[in-house]
């Protein structure tokens, strides 16, 4: 849910850097994703819906086409 709080601006949902390759979900840094927080009936089986987005109200994930315009959550290292 903290990730959802980070994305709360005028965005109802945001890309979280999780993408499906084949049948496996990877983070943007290519790490495997073991954590799941999918909304009911998700991820969908639509072959074009390979990017995960977070609903900023519920914190639940859905998947959609990566070319759909969307807000995004970014991660950066603090020094």
Automatic annotation (TrEMBL):
Organism of derivation: Acrobeloides nanus
Gene3D superfamilies in the cross-refs: Mannose-Binding Protein A, subunit A
C-type lectin domain span: 1-75
Name this protein carries in UniProt: C-type lectin domain-containing protein
InterPro entries tied to this protein: C-type_lectin-like, C-type_lectin-like/link_sf, CTDL_fold
Pfam families: Lectin_C
Record CDD domains: CLECT
């Amino acid at each position: 849910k903290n990730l959802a709080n980070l994305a709360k601006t005028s965005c109802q949902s945001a890309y979280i850097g999780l993408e499906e390759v084949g049948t496996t979900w990877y983070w943007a840094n290519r790490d495997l994703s073991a954590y799941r927080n999918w909304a009911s009936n998700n991820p969908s089986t639509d072959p074009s819906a390979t990017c995960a987005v977070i609903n900023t109200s519920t914190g639940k994930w859905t998947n959609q086409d990566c070319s759909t315009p969307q807000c995004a959550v970014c991660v950066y290292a603090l020094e």
